[in-house]
Amino acid sequence: MLVNKGATNKQPGLGGWVSPDKFSSLKEARQKLALLPEFKKDHQCCDLVELSVRTPIPVRSGEVGSLISRETGALYRGGARQSELLISMKGNEWEKYFSVTNIKKGADLK
To answer: What is the chain's pLDDT, residue by residue, as a tens digit (110 residues)?
Structure first.
């Protein structure tokens, strides 16, 4: 799961989307997840949080479609597998379902 830089220092509510796919760089993740700059700005993006599932979670899964950035006009092709978590991820509620396995800070993703 990609989260805003430094957010993991405060144990925030994490986002509601996950992908089992592995990415070799932030650029690759942005392309395959169609993660537009208007969704996550470069100066905020991103720490990669690897999670282990503690208990079954209802999800809606599919393939990421392509998107075009309104800010830059760039095409983000998509193609990664992605699941929407159908649970509340606010505050620390996510800890009922996940444990953090690994955190890669944004600088390590460039």
So the answer is: 555 545 545 554 477 888 888 888 888 988 999 989 888 776 667 777 788 889 998 999 999 999 999 999 999 999 999 999 898 877 778 888 888 888 777 655 55
Q: Are 12 and 56 in contact (CB under 8 A)?
A: no
Q: Where are the alpha helices (DSSP H) in 1-110?
A: 26-33
Indicate whether this model's pTM tops 0.85.
no
Contact between residue 69 and residue 36 where contact means Cβ atoms under 8 Å apart: yes
Structurally, the chain folds into a number of domains equal to 1
For 30, the domain range is 2-109
